[in-house]
Amino acid sequence: MGFHRKPTTFVGHVKVKVENLQRSIEFYKNVLGFDILEQTTSTVKLTTDGKTSFLSLEQPEDVIPKQGRTTGLYHFAILLPDQSALANIVIHLVGKGIRFGSSDHLVSEALYLHDPDGNEIEIYRDRAPSEWNWNGAEVEMAVDPLNFENLLKHATPDKPWQKMPAETVMGHIHLHVSELIKTEEFYEKGLGMDVVNRFGGQALFLSYGKYHHHVGVNTWNGIGAKAPAKNSVGLESFTLIFDNERARNQAVTNLKQIGAEVLEENNNFITFDPSGNAIELAV
What we know:
- By secondary structure, this protein is α+β, with helices and mostly antiparallel strands.
- It has a single domain (10-282), classed as Roll (2,3-Dihydroxybiphenyl 1,2-Dioxygenase, domain 1).
- The chain has helices at 21-31, 83-96, 148-151, 181-190, 245-257, and strands spanning 10-17, 35-39, 43-47, 55-58, 72-79, 101-104, 108-114, 120-126, 134-135, 138-139, 169-176, 194-199, 203-207, 215-218, 234-241, 262-265, 268-272, 278-282.
- The strands form three sheets. Strands 2-3-4-1-15-18-17-16 form an eight-stranded mixed sheet, covered by helices on one side.
- Strand 12 (194-199) and strand 13 form a beta hairpin.
- It is globular.
- This is VOC family protein.
- It comes from Bacillus salipaludis.
- InterPro entries: Glyas_Bleomycin-R_OHBP_Dase, Glyas_Fos-R_dOase_dom, Glyoxalase_1_CS, VOC_core.
- Keywords: Metal-binding.
- It holds the Pfam family Glyoxalase.
């Protein structure tokens, strides 16, 4: 549908920190169905198509468990290509004895679970954009019960879940932040996103190209929440993929104009939102 490929800017990669890399590899391979693209003693790049990676795991030195009531990762969201894939992974997770939550967001159907370190993962499928309801500039979203009876009608028992479909992508990322005013300015004026939903007074959803959201932010861990320790389990960084150098350079200019820090080394750019969440700016 064009929301996760150029010319639209999109979240192309997420890197998360874990306590035990081998334990995490077993989970992401045997439970979720990723393959390994590259691996070192402390990192692994995961793949669904055997050629590219949209998710990496890292075991920092002196790693400590996930800290509560901090900024950082709320969840990263894996977008499946269709409803049948979502139905099939429901059956697969139940068979594996994996506990998960669920929700119907009107624009999508979603499952929620945690990896062995407590990093939350959303696995979802989008409804067709023609089914999304827009009220002016805002898209209607909700947290309704998921209709499993209807969903499971789309399962394919003759082709059960074995691994992540090759067409799977990183759909979006949702972050804990310490406040919303400067955060909105950063993502809107700095990175060029549009606010497409205001969820109460505690969450914002932002996107490029009229997607329901590429980034979500919330203050559910408390106004003024502190950043986690650098060696804590959780988010290391996520990557935004821009259409071309010109588009990225414009974002860098905009970020500097609002006072955001942008680091550059060997044509690699990284910035930090007001809560310290690291974002790589790539082409």
